[in-house]
Amino acid sequence: MPSLPRFATLSCLVLSGIAAVGIAQRASSSASASPATQAEVTARLAASAQAVLTTLDEAGRAKVQFPFDSPQKTRWSNLPSPMFQRTGLRLADATAAQKTAVMALLSVALSRDGYRKVTEIMRGDEMLRTGDTSGPARGAPNGGGAPPDRSGAGVAGGARGRGRGMPGGGGPEFGQDQYYLAFVGTPSATAPWMLQFGGHHLAINLTLMGSEATMAPSLPAAQPATYTFEGQTIRPLGRENDKAFGLINALDANLQRQAILGYRVPDLVLGPGQDGRSIQPEGVKASALSAPQQTMLWDLVREWTGIMNDAFAEPRMAELRSHLNDTYFAWSGPTTNGSAAYFRVQGPTLVIEYAPQGTVDHIHTIYRDPTNDYGAKFARR
Amino acid sequence: MTTERSLRAGRTATLALAVVATVGVVTDVSAHRRDEYLQAARVGIEPSRIEVELDLTPGIAVAESIIAGIDSDRDGALSPNETHDYVAQVLKAIDLRSDGRSLRLEAIGWDVPDEAALRRGDDSIRLRAAAPLRLTSGSHQVSFRNSYRPDISVYMANSLAPDSDRIAVGAQRRDPEQRELVVDYTVRSEAFASSSAWKFASIAGLLLVTILWLLRVWCRPACPRFDRLDPRRA
Prior knowledge:
The complex is a heterodimer.
Chain A: H1 4-28, H2 35-54, H3 58-64, E1 65-66, E2 89-90, H4 96-109, H5 112-130, E3 180-184, E4 193-199, E5 202-209, E6 212-214, E7 219-220, E8 227-229, E9 232-234, H6 238-250, H7 253-259, E10 284-285, H8 291-305, H9 310-321, E11 328-332, E12 342-347, E13 350-356, E14 363-368, H10 376-380
Helix pairs in contact in A: 2-4, 6-8, 8-9
Chain B: H1 4-29, E1 37-46, E2 49-58, H2 63-70, H3 80-92, E3 94-98, E4 101-103, E5 106-111, H4 115-120, E6 125-132, E7 138-146, E8 153-159, E9 167-174, E10 180-187, H5 195-219, H6 224-229
Parallel strand pairs in B: 1-8
Antiparallel strand pairs in B: 1-2, 2-6, 3-4, 3-7, 5-6, 7-10, 9-10
């Protein structure tokens, strides 16, 4: 027979159910991979960062370390130095042992493919330095489609010295040695800190807090976008380009009409210096795409999220997929591969832009999480 | 014989050669934007105003022309008065309208880098301007048109995602060169604007309905209060 205690129990069950749904929804947005694995990678990263620090003297450590809340966090650019003044440990000033430690650190922070991408971008800049289209001097960072040299010894013998520049020596410096490492905060397995690695056409900003990590904002770019190294054609951002053209051409006329913007986009909208801004999304909704097209879209997105270690990339992809209904794909330009076309993937926690700089041989891209750039979300918890 | 004029001519030629060499070397090795003036605008719709952010980035080959437009006394330095005048000049070329009615944009802040940075093409003039607007609930349209230096410029114009829950941006239309942006938007009445209040009210309402329904289903036969209220049992 129904009674007041029974009613109270039932009410509690209903409320518990509502709470459980809320908790489950929150959990589904954050992880599917084992947190232990992520924590383990963070611990390895902190150890690798400490290994870099032990190769430096006191002055060197002071140069490479910055407080977590310092302005250094947001100091990055696509421009070459010294057009943009970078601080930290410059590879050109590093000893062989220091370079080895830096590259070993990157090999932990990045996925296999992320490491390849980063070293190919650096090698591309070496092409700008030498003007050599057949490949840089021996001792360039390994990668180029081949498995990364986890020892990092590849950069130890890299070309040194000032790159080509303006008269008077104040001009841009190019080359694979013109990249800088900095730690914002103290490398730790639990406390928040950030690994910054960047130079011309490259900014990797990896913020870690225990088992969580974000690579937003980061800027992988390329010039030349295609070059030859040891007889192989290298395209640092070639897969991004090809997958995007594959997707736009997989859409039917109706979906293409929704995706293609009727105007020219000459540059990144949310590039360097645009932290904290969020633009109104445009293009075709991901939920309007067929299942195979959605797979192509996530495969394209993975080219950016997958730069960081797989342990961090997997939960990030799971979170992005949960925002399918609010994710958009937009395109500007011709749809024939080989043309210069801009595209953008945007969701509540994602902005990816790919912007050719007037030519297919000079590409800028950006990866952002408007809710978690520099780990803002982690800091709020 | 070397005259002052020939010396000046020589210096000018040297400077010109240096600039040409600089441009040549830089563009040879890195094709960053050099012969265009990139004007990136962002239009923000707020409950009490329309805000426009504008980033102006001169390429290395057009920087001199931009600097000349700012440095009106040709003394080689960009004074506060000169930058103020330049900002006014830029804003004058912007046409901002709400539902077809022209709005007056007032500068609320700007940052002009030094000449050297502008010459190198590695920094931007940043300015913010706003036009007061009292938003009423319903559908509206804001249009933005930038006509500043079309001879050398490329444009971008985007609507910022609104911070206010009261405002929902709809369709955006642009001309192919992005000089013009038209944004449709809707303003909700203030009473229902706060999403947290709205969500709380919805959840509270849902819970109340659930509780009443449960009371009706389980308590009705046993509850004397209900019995008393039932006229058939009176």
